[in-house]
Automatic annotation (TrEMBL):
Highest taxon listed in the record's lineage: Eukaryota
Biased composition (Polar residues): 1-24
Stored CDD domains: zf-HIT
Residue intervals of the MYND-type domain: 349-386
Subcellular location: Cell projection, Cilium
Keyword Metal-binding: yes
Gene Ontology terms for molecular function: zinc ion binding
Main location: other
SMART domains linked to this entry: ANK
InterPro entries from the UniProt entry: Ankyrin-MYND_dom_contain_2 (IPR052452), Ankyrin_rpt (IPR002110), Ankyrin_rpt-contain_sf (IPR036770), Znf_MYND (IPR002893)
Record's protein name: MYND-type domain-containing protein
Length: 419
């Protein structure tokens, strides 16, 4: 954590404009030896020692230091997800706001920039709309220090209860969502990365391909409509996100059904539709544009049913502007996850668009990937420009992934409405 981030709480508090308490000395806090030891272990990220201390500590872990900060808030500010989980397991109050400037653990988690910490707090019941003494929510404080990944996690969070209602019978009809799919589907709709390939891989990861995709899309449609009909709390952003996820899911299903029909007819028995759809998405035209993605996104926006809402008008304005040359996917990504500065400093997986991938092409070292699967999906196009640095004689050679030898999908996209 940078020194600038470390001073954010104090700097923000100074902007309250309320100096009535400026000269009031807060009461001195007296901690027991065990309580001080817990704070010390958190400060030093000594998780094993913290676990031992907590196993022997039988009182509430919601005690505070001289600034009104609880151990959970300190752990969140450190971005220590293991310590956060230990304290949550010990019954820590996730919404404690005894801090002198009313910061909650989620405020501190957002300031730390650790998206996993934020998700743990949210799943434990943290209030994403809690405001501090300067009227800022956790997401706003995270954005203030450019912790966009944490902000995205907070803004895309969906309470489990909002999905549970689809697991019960409806007017003597079968529930739209089987109970066994509740948690996988819940995780799926909270994904921050909306790249079509990542959506495809997450459907596979969460085991949703084997389910009734038509019912899952019906859930997304209903959730979209609910967001637009909330009294006083309309959430246009999440409404459009549900629409987008459902639209991409529909495209994936069409491609899957097409491939399955070819397989059944033994025209293309070895085709993997996941690879083929990814290839369709990632295939660039001569100028490098991902033509299919551009068409998919524009058609998705065109089919959004709530034409009078602000987010729709903003996206249409940007998509039809002759001055805005940003790819359509970047435009809706900004609409859903917020505008971001210094995009050129952020690295993305060349296959699925995930941020900060930790692997590189073993040949050229120029492009980055999340894992081997993403590299394999992207190889069919990357191999055309990939060049291996010269190697000394006798060094081992790595064989390149095999390209997909299958027929491209011939289905044409509908013509988009011109701006």
């Amino acid at each position: 954590m940078s020194s600038e981030q470390s001073n954010t709480v104090q700097n923000a508090a100074k902007t309250t404009g309320d100096g009535n308490n400026a000269n009031i000395t807060p009461p001195k806090v007296v901690l027991t030896e065990d309580q001080q030891a817990i704070f010390d272990r958190i400060a030093k990220n000594e998780n094993s020692e913290l676990r031992l201390l907590l196993s022997q500590y039988k009182s509430s872990v919601d005690f505070v230091d001289e600034n009104g900060m609880t151990p959970l808030q300190h752990a969140a500010y450190k971005g220590n997800k293991e310590a956060v989980q230990l304290l949550l397991d010990q019954g820590a109050d996730v919404n404690s706001s005894k801090h002198e400037y009313n910061y909650t653990a989620l405020h501190f988690g957002a300031l730390s920039g650790n998206a996993e910490v934020c998700l743990k707090l949210l799943l434990a019941g943290a209030e994403p709309k809690a405001i501090n003494s300067v009227g800022r929510t956790p997401a706003q404080m995270g954005a203030f220090v450019a912790n966009h990944e944490a902000v995205g996690t907070i803004n895309n969070f969906v309470p489990l209860k909002d999905v549970e209602c689809y697991t019960v019978d409806r007017d003597q009809k079968e529930p739209l969502l089987p109970v066994v799919l509740l948690e996988p589907f819940h995780s799926f709709i909270m994904q921050v990365n909306i790249h079509p390939v990542r959506i495809l891989l997450n459907l596979q990861k969460y085991g949703l391909f084997a389910s009734d995709m038509k019912s899952l899309r019906a859930v997304l449609v209903d959730m979209m409509e609910r967001e637009m009909k909330r009294r006083g709390e309309v959430n246009e952003v999440m409404a459009f996100k549900y629409h987008y996820l459902g639209y991409v899911m529909g495209e994936i299903v069409k491609h899957r059904d097409y491939i399955n029909s070819r397989r059944d007819a033994q025209q293309d028995p070895k085709t993997d539709f996941v690879e083929l759809f990814a290839k369709r998405v990632l295939k660039p035209n001569k100028d490098g544009t991902l033509e299919y993605v551009e068409a998919l996104v524009r058609e998705c926006v065109r089919e959004f049913p709530f034409r009078d809402c602000t987010i729709f008008r903003q996206m249409v304005t940007q998509l039809t502007s002759k001055e805005n040359l940003a790819p359509a996917l970047d435009i809706i990504r900004a609409a859903i996850n917020g505008q971001r500065g210094f995009q050129d400093t952020i690295t993305f997986c060349s296959s699925c668009g995930e941020e900060k991938p930790d692997k590189k092409c073993s040949k050229c070292k120029e492009v980055q990937y999340c894992d081997r699967q993403c590299q394999r999906l992207h190889w069919f196009t990357h191999k055309k420009v990939c060049s291996r640095p010269s190697v000394a004689a006798g060094e081992g050679q790595h064989s390149a992934p095999k390209d997909i030898d299958s027929t491209e999908i011939s289905e044409q996209l509908q013509k988009l409405v011109a701006g």
